[in-house]
Amino acid sequence: YHRSQIKAVFKAHPRHGEDFENFYKVQVLWDESMALSIVEYLTSSEGRGKHMVIFAGSQHVQYGFGIPRRVFRRMPVAYTIVVSVITQDPVQQAHKSMKVTLPNVPLPTADFAWAVGYENLEDQRVYLGVMIKNADDGVAVIGVAEGSAAEKAGLEKQDIITGFDGEAVKTTVDLTYLVSKKRAGDPATVEVLRDGKTVRLEAVFQKNEATTP
């Protein structure tokens, strides 16, 4: 059932290609890795006896297929699945919806459905405009989008981002989170390591400048 559900979504994607097997293996590896991380924490001295709340995409939890049962296989603990359901589908976003015909699965989708309204955040979203990866000293810049806030601020490939508005940047998640709080017109001070020296750059965000953090 899990395989047929993922395949239905895969086929509906406009650029799905033909290699479903590798795609499915990656999906399973992703779920197994998350499940392993959860169990390692809950069985550690720090996590033993605690409850954990996990935020994940619906495809990773629906029917218990992804993370929940893979956790349960390693550690038989009780769990509850909550999925969000949009109460209204805005007409202006219809072109972004994929037409997916899901297989019939004789299981409840989740234990609880959380009804939410639709909120369009696209008009508020901004991007720094860098391709990044984790590095020993911070976040390494491996690409800069042309015309982006990053390029205009002077960021370069091989820079190591170590700070953002005075906050330490240790992982890509740190940087993505800090950028997500910005809006069009907001300034930001980006600290980078370049040739062993700390450089402070001033960036100004504009709406939808790029498609990367």
Structure explained in plain terms:
The mean pLDDT is 88. Helices cover 26% and strands 21% of the residues. Helix 2 (20-42) packs across helix 3. It starts with a helix and ends in a 9-residue tail after the last strand. A hairpin with a 4-residue loop joins strand 3 and strand 4 (139-144). Strands 3, 4, 5, 6, 7 and 8 form a 6-stranded antiparallel beta sheet that branches. The radius of gyration is 21 Å and the shape is globular. The chain is an alpha+beta fold and 213 residues long. The chain is built from 5 helices and 8 strands. It has helices at 2-12, 20-42, 67-74, 149-153, 172-180; strands spanning 82-86, 112-116, 130-134, 139-144, 160-164, 167-168, 187-194, 197-204.
Q: Give the distance, in angstroms, between the N- and C-terminal Cα atoms.
A: 35 Å
Determine the structural class based on helices, strands and strand pairing: alpha+beta
Would you report the number of β strands?
8
What is the string of SSEs from the N terminus onward? Answer: HHHEEEEHEEHEE
Number of helices: 5
The share of residues in helices is 25-40%
pLDDT below 50 for ≥5 consecutive residues: which ranges? none
* Mean pLDDT over the residues: 88
The general outline is globular
Major sheet characteristics: 6 strands, antiparallel
Radius of gyration: 21 Å
Taken as a percent bin, the fraction of beta residues is 15-25%
